[in-house]
Predict the 3D structure of the following.
Amino acid sequence: MLFNQVQNKENYIEFDDDNYIYKYYEERPYTEEESQSVVATMPEEHWFTLQKVKIYVSGAIEIIGARFFRPRDYNISTHIAEYTDGSATIEFREKKGDPLLQWEGVLSDGRIINYESSKTLRNEYGNLLTGSDFDEYDKAPIVNRWLARSWIEDGEEELLFLVESRAMLDDVAAYYSLPVPYNDDIKPLLDGNLEAIRLKSLDLDGKGPGEFVAVVVASIVFEDGVATKFRLYKISRWNE
Amino acid sequence: MAYGFEAKNDYGNIIINDTIENLHFIGKATRGSADSAYGDIPNYSGSNDTLDGRVVHTYTITCSGTPVAFIKPNDYSRWHSVIKQSVSGTTWTFEVMISGTSTSNPPDVYCFVNADDIPSSSETHGMQVFKSDGTTKTFDSRKQPLAITGGGTASAPPSDPTNSSGTPGTTSGHPWNYATNDHDFRSSNRYTEHSNSAANTSDAMFSCPSLAQACYKRQMHGFHQSCICYIFGWCACGYQDHWSTASWWVMYRNAFRLRSGKFDAGWTGYAAGYAFSSAYESGGWFGGGGGSYSSGTMPYTAKTINLQSNAYILADSSRYD
């Protein structure tokens, strides 16, 4: 099971769970009507994992979460996560304001995780010149693209950046005197198949389809202005 | 006219008598702050970013009566107009907009009021004309009456203030996150011209109301759809929609330019903006956002208003220096 703390955790079906969506289909094409019939047999309360997020700190998983969907209303997704130490769960909800990151996280104690896209990301997404590149923070010079900031009121702040190589992660760790976030299991992916753990592919270089940038994300957590954690976001998908 | 003095020109038009209140020079308004902006579209980098720019100079003058402002350009290549006139007590404020972003060479604003609103003069020679009440002055030769050197009716500027052909609009079907403006919002070649021998680029000044306004927006909707998941090779879970909206807008005011023998009625951009929003269904951890969005902060819906011909008056500023 994916979660330990999340309410009704049994309804969130993992990729390798026997009740995952594959169970309902045979290996053949389906007509729209047939598909609807299949979908109708799926329990309403079941949500299927679509993308899984594991956030690593010092080689261990700090937070695990996922995006879930239901085929009966596939335009609705839900994003849920929990801290593996049992300290909190996170539910994401829509929030307008930022031109790109139009959502916020709600911790189980009611605190809000706010998100703000960087000026760099906005410019590369849509030629927008608003926003900040967070120059007031101690930013590792090896990083080329700072993507976003998150913050919890009276709590931690987090600067997220684009990972271009494992060497970059090593340099960032050295800069902040923090342990690298990955472990030996992830190392081969970082070295040979970095895009496999991307959050999304985006046309950040303006080169068009086929040359999108795999947005692999890591972050530095600051508490009272001091870097205290180095996180790596590892995404896996239903087909990987 | 039962009594008094009347002067007519060669065409028989009355210039001075006891009923026409002639305008007289009361002084140049004092220039204050200048606001320079919109040399390009704010918050945008990309094609067709450049705008003409504008500077709004603020002038004040204290007088009783309502002053009529004449703009004397000090850079005749730029477009000028009075875009706002207000009063507090007896202090009048004019906002004069000129094209371009340089605050150098601001225009002078010459102000004229009725003869009766001109402070009394200590000069002992000259001629005054009063209304039949014997106290309301209509003319005073000692106080530099306005001498009109030219004028006429300026046709409205072109209804489309943008250099690109046609007004911009909204189109869909662009790639997701497409944000490249394809419309030239500048106005440099959008004007109507009027021949007038009194127009020159040395001492001529003009008075003409800036009535026409326009506001236009280019908006592009981007869209992308991807399969959420494939089951045994076919898209079993439906499709995920990605949306983006990019919009560029400019608001214009009617402005004027003097050339040798020409009076031009055209446009200058007063304000501009750019908005962009990108989302895809669901939210969380770069998962996108809601499908709905709002963007743009145009002052009103795209159109041109108050488009009409205007009377304009020309005068020689050197008479009042």
